Protein backbone atom coordinates (compact mmCIF):
# COMPACT_ATOMS: atom_id res chain seq x y z
CA UNK A 1 0.00 0.00 0.00
CA UNK A 2 2.25 2.75 1.23
CA UNK A 3 5.97 2.85 1.57
CA UNK A 4 8.64 5.45 1.72
CA UNK A 5 12.01 5.67 0.07
CA UNK A 6 15.28 5.73 1.90
CA UNK A 7 15.86 9.36 1.01
CA UNK A 8 14.03 11.74 3.35
CA UNK A 9 14.12 15.52 3.17
CA UNK A 10 15.21 17.65 6.11
CA UNK A 11 11.66 18.89 6.50
CA UNK A 12 10.44 15.32 6.91
CA UNK A 13 13.12 14.66 9.50
CA UNK A 14 12.01 17.58 11.63
CA UNK A 15 8.33 16.72 11.15
CA UNK A 16 7.94 12.95 11.49
CA UNK A 17 4.19 13.07 10.97
CA UNK A 18 4.70 13.79 7.29
CA UNK A 19 5.01 10.09 6.77
CA UNK A 20 1.46 9.28 7.88
CA UNK A 21 -0.54 7.68 5.09
CA UNK A 22 -4.09 8.28 4.05
CA UNK A 23 -6.23 5.43 5.31
CA UNK A 24 -9.80 4.86 6.39
CA UNK A 25 -10.23 6.81 8.37
CA UNK A 26 -6.92 6.71 10.12
CA UNK A 27 -3.47 5.82 8.79
CA UNK A 28 -2.36 2.26 8.35
CA UNK A 29 0.64 1.79 10.57
CA UNK A 30 2.62 -0.40 8.21
CA UNK A 31 3.09 2.53 5.88
CA UNK A 32 4.35 5.09 8.32
CA UNK A 33 7.65 6.57 7.22
CA UNK A 34 10.13 5.67 9.89
CA UNK A 35 13.12 6.50 7.72
CA UNK A 36 14.81 8.77 10.19
CA UNK A 37 18.49 8.69 11.01
CA UNK A 38 18.33 6.55 14.15
CA UNK A 39 14.82 5.05 14.31
CA UNK A 40 14.25 3.52 10.89
CA UNK A 41 12.55 0.15 10.47
CA UNK A 42 12.59 0.19 6.66
CA UNK A 43 14.58 -3.04 6.43
CA UNK A 44 12.20 -4.69 8.90
CA UNK A 45 9.19 -3.74 6.78
CA UNK A 46 10.81 -4.88 3.54
CA UNK A 47 11.49 -8.25 5.16
CA UNK A 48 8.25 -8.88 7.04
CA UNK A 49 5.58 -7.52 4.73
CA UNK A 50 6.36 -9.48 1.53
CA UNK A 51 6.61 -12.77 3.43
CA UNK A 52 3.45 -12.16 5.45
CA UNK A 53 1.41 -10.87 2.51
CA UNK A 54 2.36 -13.72 0.18
CA UNK A 55 1.67 -16.33 2.87
CA UNK A 56 -1.74 -14.80 3.65
CA UNK A 57 -2.46 -14.56 -0.07
CA UNK A 58 -1.72 -18.26 -0.64
CA UNK A 59 -3.70 -19.57 2.33
CA UNK A 60 -6.54 -17.10 2.00
CA UNK A 61 -7.00 -17.62 -1.73
CA UNK A 62 -7.20 -21.40 -1.41
CA UNK A 63 -9.52 -21.35 1.60
CA UNK A 64 -11.90 -18.76 0.21
CA UNK A 65 -12.03 -20.27 -3.28
CA UNK A 66 -12.89 -23.68 -1.83
CA UNK A 67 -15.64 -22.05 0.20
CA UNK A 68 -16.91 -20.21 -2.87
CA UNK A 69 -16.96 -23.49 -4.81
CA UNK A 70 -19.37 -25.04 -2.33
CA UNK A 71 -21.54 -21.95 -2.31
CA UNK A 72 -21.80 -21.89 -6.11
CA UNK A 73 -22.45 -25.63 -6.38
CA UNK A 74 -26.02 -26.16 -7.53
CA UNK A 75 -26.45 -29.16 -5.26
CA UNK A 76 -25.34 -27.12 -2.25
CA UNK A 77 -27.76 -24.32 -3.15
CA UNK A 78 -30.61 -26.80 -3.23
CA UNK A 79 -29.60 -28.40 0.05
CA UNK A 80 -28.70 -25.35 2.11
CA UNK A 81 -31.23 -23.00 0.41
CA UNK A 82 -29.01 -20.07 1.45
CA UNK A 83 -29.97 -19.66 5.07
CA UNK A 84 -29.22 -16.26 6.71
CA UNK A 85 -26.07 -17.71 8.30
CA UNK A 86 -24.76 -18.94 4.95
CA UNK A 87 -25.64 -15.63 3.29
CA UNK A 88 -23.56 -13.77 5.88
CA UNK A 89 -20.68 -16.21 5.40
CA UNK A 90 -20.88 -15.82 1.62
CA UNK A 91 -20.51 -12.05 1.91
CA UNK A 92 -17.68 -12.55 4.39
CA UNK A 93 -15.68 -14.73 2.00
CA UNK A 94 -16.31 -12.33 -0.91
CA UNK A 95 -14.86 -9.56 1.23
CA UNK A 96 -11.87 -11.75 2.04
CA UNK A 97 -11.30 -12.58 -1.62
CA UNK A 98 -11.07 -8.87 -2.43
CA UNK A 99 -8.52 -8.49 0.32
CA UNK A 100 -6.26 -11.42 -0.62
CA UNK A 101 -6.25 -10.36 -4.28
CA UNK A 102 -4.72 -7.02 -3.27
CA UNK A 103 -1.88 -8.56 -1.26
CA UNK A 104 0.47 -9.43 -4.18
CA UNK A 105 0.50 -5.73 -5.15
CA UNK A 106 1.47 -4.79 -1.60
CA UNK A 107 4.19 -7.45 -1.46
CA UNK A 108 5.64 -6.27 -4.78
CA UNK A 109 5.58 -2.68 -3.55
CA UNK A 110 7.75 -3.46 -0.56
CA UNK A 111 10.08 -5.70 -2.56
CA UNK A 112 10.65 -3.07 -5.27
CA UNK A 113 10.49 -0.08 -2.89
CA UNK A 114 8.40 1.89 -5.39
CA UNK A 115 4.86 1.79 -6.78
CA UNK A 116 4.63 0.39 -10.32
CA UNK A 117 0.91 -0.30 -10.73
CA UNK A 118 -0.58 3.07 -11.58
CA UNK A 119 -2.51 5.75 -9.77
CA UNK A 120 -5.93 4.04 -9.80
CA UNK A 121 -4.56 0.83 -8.28
CA UNK A 122 -2.83 2.88 -5.60
CA UNK A 123 -6.13 4.49 -4.65
CA UNK A 124 -7.87 1.12 -4.44
CA UNK A 125 -5.36 -0.60 -2.12
CA UNK A 126 -6.22 1.16 1.13
CA UNK A 127 -9.88 1.27 0.15
CA UNK A 128 -10.01 -2.52 -0.19
CA UNK A 129 -8.12 -3.10 3.06
CA UNK A 130 -10.53 -1.15 5.23
CA UNK A 131 -13.64 -2.40 3.45
CA UNK A 132 -12.46 -5.92 4.22
CA UNK A 133 -11.51 -5.29 7.83
CA UNK A 134 -14.56 -3.37 8.96
CA UNK A 135 -16.90 -5.29 6.71
CA UNK A 136 -15.58 -8.51 8.26
CA UNK A 137 -15.98 -7.09 11.75
CA UNK A 138 -19.65 -6.28 11.19
CA UNK A 139 -20.41 -9.55 9.40
CA UNK A 140 -18.82 -11.47 12.29
CA UNK A 141 -20.77 -9.43 14.84
CA UNK A 142 -24.07 -10.15 13.09
CA UNK A 143 -23.17 -13.85 12.84
CA UNK A 144 -22.62 -13.95 16.59
CA UNK A 145 -25.96 -12.26 17.23
CA UNK A 146 -27.79 -14.69 14.93
CA UNK A 147 -26.25 -17.72 16.63
CA UNK A 148 -26.93 -16.24 20.06
CA UNK A 149 -30.62 -15.96 19.17
CA UNK A 150 -30.52 -19.56 17.92
CA UNK A 151 -29.30 -20.68 21.36
CA UNK A 152 -31.44 -18.57 23.67
CA UNK A 153 -34.57 -17.99 21.55
CA UNK A 154 -34.83 -20.90 19.09
CA UNK A 155 -38.43 -20.14 18.12
CA UNK A 156 -37.52 -16.53 17.38
CA UNK A 157 -34.57 -17.80 15.34
CA UNK A 158 -36.92 -19.92 13.22
CA UNK A 159 -39.10 -16.89 12.52
CA UNK A 160 -36.01 -14.89 11.51
CA UNK A 161 -34.99 -17.45 8.87
CA UNK A 162 -35.63 -15.02 6.04
CA UNK A 163 -33.10 -14.92 3.22
CA UNK A 164 -34.38 -11.62 1.85
CA UNK A 165 -33.80 -9.85 5.17
CA UNK A 166 -30.30 -11.32 5.36
CA UNK A 167 -29.45 -10.00 1.89
CA UNK A 168 -30.81 -6.55 2.78
CA UNK A 169 -28.69 -6.50 5.95
CA UNK A 170 -25.56 -7.48 4.00
CA UNK A 171 -26.20 -4.76 1.42
CA UNK A 172 -26.54 -2.21 4.22
CA UNK A 173 -23.20 -3.31 5.71
CA UNK A 174 -21.51 -3.06 2.31
CA UNK A 175 -22.93 0.42 1.76
CA UNK A 176 -21.81 1.67 5.18
CA UNK A 177 -18.19 0.51 4.88
CA UNK A 178 -17.96 1.50 1.20
CA UNK A 179 -19.24 5.03 1.74
CA UNK A 180 -17.13 5.49 4.88
CA UNK A 181 -14.04 4.43 2.91
CA UNK A 182 -14.54 6.86 0.02
CA UNK A 183 -11.94 9.37 1.37
CA UNK A 184 -9.26 6.77 0.62
CA UNK A 185 -9.94 7.13 -3.10
CA UNK A 186 -8.82 10.77 -3.06
CA UNK A 187 -5.13 10.07 -2.48
CA UNK A 188 -3.12 8.66 -5.36
CA UNK A 189 0.51 8.27 -6.28
CA UNK A 190 3.19 10.94 -5.93
CA UNK A 191 6.84 11.22 -6.92
CA UNK A 192 9.63 11.44 -4.38
CA UNK A 193 13.34 11.26 -5.25
CA UNK A 194 12.42 10.19 -8.78
CA UNK A 195 10.46 7.21 -7.43
CA UNK A 196 6.70 6.74 -7.56
CA UNK A 197 5.20 6.41 -4.09
CA UNK A 198 1.70 5.72 -2.95
CA UNK A 199 -0.71 7.62 -0.66
CA UNK A 200 0.85 10.14 1.68
CA UNK A 201 -1.04 12.15 4.24
CA UNK A 202 -0.58 15.91 4.11
CA UNK A 203 0.45 17.67 7.37
CA UNK A 204 -2.80 19.65 7.41
CA UNK A 205 -4.75 16.40 7.84
CA UNK A 206 -2.98 15.15 10.95
CA UNK A 207 -5.39 16.61 13.51
CA UNK A 208 -8.40 15.31 11.61
CA UNK A 209 -6.90 11.84 11.38
CA UNK A 210 -6.38 11.64 15.15
CA UNK A 211 -9.99 12.62 15.79
CA UNK A 212 -11.33 10.14 13.25
CA UNK A 213 -9.26 7.38 14.80
CA UNK A 214 -11.18 7.70 18.06
CA UNK A 215 -14.53 7.45 16.33
CA UNK A 216 -13.53 4.46 14.22
CA UNK A 217 -12.00 2.75 17.23
CA UNK A 218 -15.38 2.87 18.98
CA UNK A 219 -17.74 2.23 16.07
CA UNK A 220 -15.51 -0.13 14.12
CA UNK A 221 -14.05 -2.22 16.93
CA UNK A 222 -15.17 -1.56 20.52
CA UNK A 223 -18.90 -1.70 19.84
CA UNK A 224 -18.83 -4.91 17.73
CA UNK A 225 -16.40 -6.51 20.19
CA UNK A 226 -18.73 -5.76 23.11
CA UNK A 227 -21.64 -7.26 21.17
CA UNK A 228 -19.71 -10.46 20.43
CA UNK A 229 -18.42 -10.74 24.00
CA UNK A 230 -21.92 -10.32 25.45
CA UNK A 231 -23.27 -12.95 23.05
CA UNK A 232 -20.55 -15.37 24.11
CA UNK A 233 -21.01 -14.80 27.85
CA UNK A 234 -24.79 -15.19 27.77
CA UNK A 235 -24.58 -18.18 25.44
CA UNK A 236 -22.09 -19.88 27.77
CA UNK A 237 -24.29 -19.28 30.83
CA UNK A 238 -27.31 -20.57 28.95
CA UNK A 239 -25.53 -23.77 27.92
CA UNK A 240 -24.33 -24.34 31.48
CA UNK A 241 -27.91 -23.96 32.62
CA UNK A 242 -29.10 -26.48 30.03
CA UNK A 243 -26.69 -29.10 31.35
CA UNK A 244 -28.70 -29.24 34.55
CA UNK A 245 -31.81 -30.13 32.58
CA UNK A 246 -32.34 -33.18 30.42
CA UNK A 247 -32.34 -32.49 26.72
CA UNK A 248 -32.08 -34.73 23.72
CA UNK A 249 -28.71 -35.08 22.04
CA UNK A 250 -29.84 -33.30 18.89
CA UNK A 251 -30.77 -30.17 20.81
CA UNK A 252 -27.50 -30.20 22.75
CA UNK A 253 -25.53 -30.60 19.51
CA UNK A 254 -27.25 -27.62 17.88
CA UNK A 255 -26.61 -25.44 20.93
CA UNK A 256 -22.94 -26.44 21.07
CA UNK A 257 -22.60 -25.76 17.35
CA UNK A 258 -24.04 -22.28 17.75
CA UNK A 259 -21.81 -21.59 20.74
CA UNK A 260 -18.78 -22.81 18.76
CA UNK A 261 -19.40 -20.17 16.11
CA UNK A 262 -19.51 -17.41 18.73
CA UNK A 263 -16.27 -18.73 20.26
CA UNK A 264 -14.47 -18.84 16.89
CA UNK A 265 -15.62 -15.31 16.07
CA UNK A 266 -14.38 -14.10 19.46
CA UNK A 267 -11.00 -15.77 18.91
CA UNK A 268 -10.67 -14.12 15.48
CA UNK A 269 -11.31 -10.76 17.13
CA UNK A 270 -8.76 -11.42 19.86
CA UNK A 271 -6.10 -12.69 17.45
CA UNK A 272 -6.53 -10.33 14.48
CA UNK A 273 -8.42 -7.17 15.29
CA UNK A 274 -7.74 -6.37 18.94
CA UNK A 275 -3.91 -6.21 18.65
CA UNK A 276 -4.21 -4.05 15.55
CA UNK A 277 -6.55 -1.48 17.08
CA UNK A 278 -4.71 -1.33 20.40
CA UNK A 279 -1.28 -0.92 18.83
CA UNK A 280 -2.61 1.49 16.22
CA UNK A 281 -3.85 3.80 18.97
CA UNK A 282 -0.52 3.60 20.84
CA UNK A 283 1.31 4.16 17.58
CA UNK A 284 -0.62 7.33 16.77
CA UNK A 285 -0.12 8.72 20.27
CA UNK A 286 3.61 8.03 20.08
CA UNK A 287 3.97 9.66 16.68
CA UNK A 288 1.95 12.68 17.77
CA UNK A 289 4.20 13.03 20.80
CA UNK A 290 7.23 12.91 18.49
CA UNK A 291 5.67 15.61 16.35
CA UNK A 292 5.02 17.88 19.33
CA UNK A 293 8.07 17.21 21.52
CA UNK A 294 10.65 15.56 19.28
CA UNK A 295 12.37 12.26 20.05
CA UNK A 296 12.06 12.40 23.83
CA UNK A 297 11.86 8.62 24.11
CA UNK A 298 14.73 6.40 23.08
CA UNK A 299 14.86 4.95 19.60
CA UNK A 300 14.37 1.51 21.15
CA UNK A 301 10.85 2.47 22.22
CA UNK A 302 10.00 4.14 18.91
CA UNK A 303 11.26 1.19 16.91
CA UNK A 304 9.36 -1.24 19.14
CA UNK A 305 6.09 0.61 18.58
CA UNK A 306 6.63 0.77 14.84
CA UNK A 307 7.58 -2.90 14.58
CA UNK A 308 4.54 -3.84 16.65
CA UNK A 309 2.48 -1.80 14.19
CA UNK A 310 3.88 -3.82 11.29
CA UNK A 311 3.19 -7.16 12.97
CA UNK A 312 -0.35 -6.30 14.06
CA UNK A 313 -1.17 -5.03 10.58
CA UNK A 314 -0.19 -8.45 9.25
CA UNK A 315 -2.41 -10.07 11.87
CA UNK A 316 -5.34 -7.89 10.80
CA UNK A 317 -4.77 -8.94 7.19
CA UNK A 318 -4.61 -12.56 8.32
CA UNK A 319 -8.31 -12.63 9.19
CA UNK A 320 -8.84 -13.48 5.51
CA UNK A 321 -7.27 -16.88 6.21
CA UNK A 322 -9.28 -17.59 9.36
CA UNK A 323 -12.75 -16.64 8.16
CA UNK A 324 -13.13 -19.75 5.93
CA UNK A 325 -12.84 -21.87 9.08
CA UNK A 326 -16.28 -20.60 10.06
CA UNK A 327 -17.72 -21.98 6.85
CA UNK A 328 -15.86 -25.28 6.92
CA UNK A 329 -16.78 -26.22 10.47
CA UNK A 330 -19.86 -24.18 11.34
CA UNK A 331 -21.59 -23.47 8.03
CA UNK A 332 -25.07 -24.92 7.88
CA UNK A 333 -25.36 -28.13 5.81
CA UNK A 334 -21.68 -27.97 4.86
CA UNK A 335 -20.50 -31.04 6.77
CA UNK A 336 -23.19 -33.30 5.33
CA UNK A 337 -22.54 -31.88 1.86
CA UNK A 338 -18.80 -32.52 2.26
CA UNK A 339 -19.34 -36.13 3.31
CA UNK A 340 -21.71 -36.69 0.42
CA UNK A 341 -19.37 -35.33 -2.27
CA UNK A 342 -15.94 -36.21 -0.90
CA UNK A 343 -14.54 -39.38 -2.53
CA UNK A 344 -14.27 -42.19 -0.03
CA UNK A 345 -11.91 -45.11 0.06
CA UNK A 346 -12.90 -48.01 -2.11
CA UNK A 347 -14.65 -50.64 -0.06
CA UNK A 348 -14.21 -54.35 -0.62
CA UNK A 349 -17.22 -55.27 1.49
CA UNK A 350 -19.76 -57.28 -0.45
CA UNK A 351 -23.42 -57.82 0.29
CA UNK A 352 -22.57 -61.15 1.87
CA UNK A 353 -20.01 -59.48 4.14
CA UNK A 354 -22.58 -56.88 5.16
CA UNK A 355 -24.98 -59.62 6.22
CA UNK A 356 -22.23 -61.31 8.25
CA UNK A 357 -21.35 -58.03 9.98
CA UNK A 358 -24.99 -57.36 10.78
CA UNK A 359 -25.30 -60.83 12.28
CA UNK A 360 -22.19 -60.26 14.43
CA UNK A 361 -23.51 -56.93 15.64
CA UNK A 362 -26.89 -58.44 16.51
CA UNK A 363 -25.25 -61.26 18.47
CA UNK A 364 -23.09 -58.74 20.30
CA UNK A 365 -26.16 -56.70 21.24
CA UNK A 366 -27.90 -59.84 22.53
CA UNK A 367 -24.95 -60.62 24.79
CA UNK A 368 -24.94 -57.06 26.14
CA UNK A 369 -28.62 -57.21 27.00
CA UNK A 370 -28.12 -60.50 28.85
CA UNK A 371 -25.41 -58.90 30.97
CA UNK A 372 -27.63 -55.99 31.98
From TrEMBL:
Q: Does the keyword 4Fe-4S apply?
A: no
Give the subcellular location: Cell membrane
Q: Which InterPro entries match?
A: GPCR_Rhodpsn (IPR000276)
For this record, the Gene Ontology CC terms, alphabetical, are: plasma membrane
Q: What is its main location?
A: membrane
Q: Spell out the coiled coil positions from the record.
A: none
Residue ranges spanning the membrane: these are: 51-71, 92-112, 124-146, 166-185, 216-240, 261-279
**Lipid bilayer topology:** Multi-pass membrane protein
Protein name stated in the entry = G-protein coupled receptors family 1 profile domain-containing protein
Tell me the organism: Cyprinus carpio (Common carp)
